[in-house]
Amino acid sequence: MKAQDPPDRGQNPPIKGDWAQKTPIIEGRGTAPGMSDDKISYPKRAISEIREGLAETVALIRRRGPSQIQFWFIALCIGVASGFAALLFRKGINLLQGFFYGTDDLRHLHSFAGGLPWYWVLALPVCGGLVVGVILNWFTPDGRVRSVADVIEGAALNEGRVEKRAGLASAAASLITLSTGGSSGREGPVVHLAGVISSWVSNRLHADGITGRDLLGCAVAAAVSASFNAPIAGALFALEVVLRHFAVHAFAPIVIASAAGTVINRLEFGGVTEFTLAAEGALTFYVELPAFLLLGLLCGVVAVVMMRTIFMADDFGSWAQERMHLPPVLRPAVAGLLLGTIAIFFPHIIGVGYETTSYALTGQLLIWQAIVFAVIKVVAVAITMAGRMGGGVFSPALMVGALTGLAFGLIATAVFPNVSGTATLYALAGMGAVAAAVLGAPISTTLIVFELTGDWQTGLAVMVAVSLSTALASRLVDRSFFLTLLERRDVHLAAGPQAYLLATVRVHQCYRAPDAPRAASEEACKDLIQQGIYVSPNMTLEKAMPLFEAHNLVFVPVVTLHEESGPELHGALFQVDALRVFSKKLADTAAEEHS
């Protein structure tokens, strides 16, 4: 074999390995023959190397999962993306509201809408409802808006993923609803929109359940923080409401994402709070605390009435739609017609209701106004939700709570003027108490109230009212509005992991095939099939497990029914195998929550 001549000074040395096929070498400094510096410049090489490095990083994360530092960087990116999504959603509402109602001062939209022609106030929600109906019936399988409840369900049952197509359609529908006179809040669609972002990232990284839930928590925290300029409450909301645990391993990335979302908000709006109080409230005497205990109980009742009114309205809407043979696409338009009729006389129901809430917190309403506005707002929110128009319940709960607290405070200060503070202090406590009871989140809601108002001096009064309202409401509903909504869909999350984990496992994941060791006999399986006792491979253990106790069985045949060829036997589900899988799921959940 002829020896290879050593390379000359100006020649390229031989390249071996993968680099010889992947990377072009610059002439004079390792350039491939025939290429010059003009054709492959340094910026192009740098961009190419960065692209390759990112591709290798993503491939590594897919194979081994992100390390802690990588995960924090991903959390930061998700926080920025979710923050911008929340910001754009809010700016979109402001832009469309200003266009449709013809005002630049959206802080006083309700006052301005009161002077518009009645036919315009009536027509806007109807037109908005028509658009919403088309969007939801084209892009969702059931014509239903996705919200916080679906995010909670995704965290518990779907490894931190939510529906992307239906989620984007829901965000668009909610944007139209809030811009054309719907009476709801913006936090529900924003939270689900953030969940769509985290789900896309989780799918790209092939994230497991724990990582997917943590990424979902990061997105939710950033969205709430960006939407309300509340970084502390945003982080705790994700942990308390969505993940429903306070695992240490999830705390750092969620805080990073929450801080990123807050920065996005403050770059646009500055460090101002959502509501400006007339003056800092303070308890005049500690003997006033019993009044806040009573306010907490009252707010708990109001919260339960608000939630049950929404559910009753939804049931009535479904019944009326069926009886009237109303196409689903027209249901939001009918709700818009009712909302427009109410808005002609009570324009304060339009949108999230920040102007009326501000009036309550600053004591600019009379007692009869506070009571009537609270009742009408509950009715308007129920119509919006029953009409499947979109939006959330948090902002309406803040408004109803502030009005309830103000009415209570005006009475309390009138009856006991010598031992009472200001009525606005009761409005602040009521705002937190009703919202906490509706969300089932006393910790994060209390902090949201403080961060929305900037008043940290009245913490004792707010916490007393929040604790009583949450304790009472959680016993009259399934812990919160969201969990009760899921219970109505036959999704049992309120009782904890022991109630819903069986729904996460399918029969085909744990049954024994006929050729497996200690498999069930074919004759015994056929006998049970003839008695109508069997399960399908795609059935969840939640549906299959009751068969063991109902018939006192050790195993149940796993069968697929075919119309032409009859039942196809796949094997048998043994009770001991199902219990073993359930036990492991419980152990994994406990390990995640305490890690």
Q: How would a textbook summarize the main sheet?
A: 2 strands, antiparallel
The N- to C-terminal Cα distance equals 63 Å
- What is the subunit organization of this protein? single chain
Total number of helices:
24
What is the H/E string? Answer: HHHHHHHHHHHHHHHHHHHHHHHEEH
Strand residue percentage: under 5%
Write the CATH fold name of the largest domain: Clc chloride channel
Q: How helical, in percent, are the residues?
A: 55-70%
| Strand line-up across the major sheet | 1-2
Global geometry: globular
Named at the architecture level, the CATH assignment of the largest domain is Orthogonal Bundle
Give the low-confidence spans: 1-37
Task: Find the count of extended strands (DSSP E, 2+ residues).
Answer: 2
Q: So what's the CATH class of the largest domain? A: Mainly Alpha
Name the CATH superfamily assignment of the largest domain: Clc chloride channel
The total domain count is 3
- What is the radius of gyration? 29 Å
Mean pLDDT: 85
SS-based class: mainly alpha
Subcellular location: Membrane
Pfam family, one: Voltage_CLC
Protein name: Voltage-gated chloride channel protein
GO molecular function: chloride channel activity
